[in-house]
Write a structure and sequence with these properties.
- There is one protein chain.
- This protein has a 6-stranded parallel beta sheet with strand order 2-1-4-6-7-8, with helices on one face.
- The chain is of the alpha/beta class.
- Helix 1 crosses helix 4.
- The protein has 2 domains: about 160 residues, Rossmann fold, CATH 3.40.50.360; about 80 residues, Alpha-Beta Plaits, CATH 3.30.70.20.
- The chain has 9 helices and 12 strands.
- Bound molecules: flavin mononucleotide.
- Flavin mononucleotide (FMN) binds next to helix 1 and strand 6.
Length: about 280
């Protein structure tokens, strides 16, 4: 049990490149008695208990879903103290089914999401042909929308209002979505991309430091992605490598273009901020 009964809001967050961390911090600026708790720091616990009456989850969308680490965490979380639960998902703009999945988990605990929102932010997934990181101008525009939306989110949370964001983008409106959604939970299993460091690697160990799952280990001064440790696909190793030496290997299902593409991390989130989640 955490010893912080006075804290009125707890936000549990997961962030590979700082977008979701930025959002969590911005909510804390607006609702001052908020404690930010990194999900990764709790994953090795068997039972995790909230103390707050208002509880939030902030994380990125991965492959149209909540990251596997977030799902694992939520399944263990004892939410009995929570009287109001909200979620903010950050994404690069595509539709997802994260809220449906979260609702299903919470339902088994006799809880539900009182409000949920998604925020469009720059993409941190440089493996596609022609991918380019958001320009400063695009980041400014996205950030301005994020700030406006966070003002509304703050009001909704403080008034403990119900708010289920109407999603107007494509997947949920496709006739095939109910069928597609059956297969989505299995998509993670097929998303088995492999990482490696190319000859630009300066052996600085940043990849090991920011790796949220503990998969990257420096062995004889070189990074090794351990086969037996499950990757969280947060892309921190890929995006924070100062030499852009970390790459994704092409697989039969996916051709990767990381060798040609630039990288992205949130302008206010350092490698130390990401590593600090562990
Ligand atoms: C492996 C992976 C899969 C992603 N899948 C999606 C997706 O399905 N839809 C989407 O809009 N964004 C997707 N993104 C982009 C991230 O959700 C987005 O950039 C997010 O804000 C990153 O947050 P973070 O910096 O807190 O990790 C994906 C990113 C990664 C690394």
């Amino acid at each position: 049990m955490r010893a912080c009964d006075k804290i009125s809001v707890e936000i549990y967050y997961f962030s590979g490149t700082g977008n979701s961390l930025h959002v969590a911090r911005e909510i804390r600026k607006r609702i001052t008695e908020t404690e930010l708790i990194p999900i990764v720091s709790l994953l090795n616990k068997n039972i995790i208990k909230t103390n707050a009456k208002i509880v939030g989850f902030v994380f990125p969308i991965h492959l149209a879903m909540a990251p596997a680490a977030v799902i694992e965490f939520l399944k263990k979380l004892d939410l009995r103290s929570a009287e109001y639960i909200f979620t903010v998902a950050t994404r690069a703009g595509s539709q997802h089914r994260a809220f449906i999945d979260l609702e299903n988990i919470l339902k088994k605990k006799g809880k539900s999401l009182d409000s949920y929102f998604s925020l469009n932010m720059p993409s941190n997934d440089p493996k596609f042909e022609g991918w380019e990181p958001a320009t400063d101008e695009e980041i400014r525009k996205l950030e301005s929308n994020v700030q406006n939306k966070l003002d509304s989110i703050q009001e909704i949370i403080l008034k403990k209002e119900k708010y289920h964001e109407e999603d107007t983008e494509f997947i949920t409106h496709m006739p095939a979505f109910p069928i597609l959604s059956i297969f989505l939970p299995f998509l993670n299993r097929f998303y088995n991309v492999e990482f490696y460091a190319d000859s630009k690697c300066a052996r600085c160990g940043t990849c090991e430091r920011v790796c949220l799952s503990g998969k990257v280990k420096m062995i004889d001064g070189k990074p090794v992605w351990h086969k037996d440790i499950q990757c969280f696909f947060c892309h921190a190793c890929l995006n924070y490598c100062p030499e852009q030496a970390v790459q994704i290997k092409s697989s039969r299902l996916l051709k990767s273009f990381t060798e040609e593409n630039e990288r992205y991390s949130h302008p206010y989130a350092t490698a130390d901020d990401i590593a600090g989640q562990k």
